[in-house]
Design a protein that fits this description.
There is one protein chain. The chain is an alpha+beta fold. The chain has four helices and eleven strands; from the N terminus they run H-E-H-E-E-H-E-E-E-E-E-E-E-E-H. Helices cover 27% and strands 35% of the residues. Strands 1, 2, 3, 4, 5, 6, 7, 8, 9, 10 and 11 form an eleven-stranded antiparallel sheet that branches. Helix 1 (2-24) runs antiparallel to helix 4. The relative contact order is 0.20.
Length: 223
């Protein structure tokens, strides 16, 4: 009886471990986002031109005649907990084997693109939530402009900015946030995905339990 009780308790423990492993398995989702530029002043245009960026002008703001497209996409692990209250940066964006960095996270402003894994990243990318609802991103990257000028791109929540090394703005803009901020949310299954470990965990539990219960029976037969 003691051996059976021991086996039963070990089984419960292993089942708990198996359940934890299943819960911790990534559940990837892919989504898109968009936004726009705030007013692009003549001073901003002059700084952009000085950095070799000539495709953005005073008519590029989101409500102007020719708004510059601001958009992006990401893949994130929806199994990572999201705080229900307050503002929090959730680091649910990470490397995925055999998935290109540009597919994991990319933020594009016209011809400028910022991607997961870029060498100049200073922080992030992370998804920001406010009271459990999408509130933008946390992301910072230093990079060289088309003519080799060092610039800094920063996203704090629902707003972003592009600055030079004198901390002068070249661009400012926004990301659409809220319940409708992330669009086209869909399941994302990596090509090399491994099946859930639940069946393997249960098989392991059964084998261990069998061995533990078999031992006292064999001892009694020898007695």
């Amino acid at each position: 009886m003691t051996g059976k009780i021991r086996a039963f308790l070990v089984c419960l423990f292993l089942i708990a471990l198996g359940g934890t492993a299943v819960q911790a398995a990534p559940v990837y989702k892919a989504a898109d986002f968009s936004g726009g530029l705030f007013s692009v002043t003549s001073t901003f245009v002059s700084r952009l031109n000085a950095a070799g960026i000539n495709t953005i002008n005073s008519t590029s703001c989101y409500n102007c005649a020719t708004p510059t497209p601001v958009s992006g996409h990401l893949v994130y692990d929806s199994a990572v907990p999201i705080p229900a209250t307050g503002t929090a940066n959730v680091f649910s964006i990470g490397a995925i084997p055999d998935v290109a960095n540009a597919a994991i996270f990319e933020f594009s402003i016209d011809g400028l693109s910022f991607r997961f894994g870029d060498p100049g990243i200073q922080g992030g990318p992370a998804i920001q939530y406010r009271n459990g609802v999408f509130n933008g991103f946390f992301f910072a990257e230093d990079f060289l402009s088309p003519n080799g000028t060092l610039l800094s791109f920063s996203v704090q929540g629902g707003q972003f900015s592009l600055r030079n090394q004198q901390f002068e703005n070249l661009l400012t803009g926004f990301i659409t946030t809220g319940a409708a901020g992330l669009t086209n949310i869909r399941d994302f299954v990596p090509a090399n995905a491994v099946p859930e470990p639940s069946s393997l965990a249960l098989l392991g539990v059964a084998l261990v339990a069998f061995q533990l219960m078999r031992k006292p029976i064999a001892q009694r037969m020898r007695a």
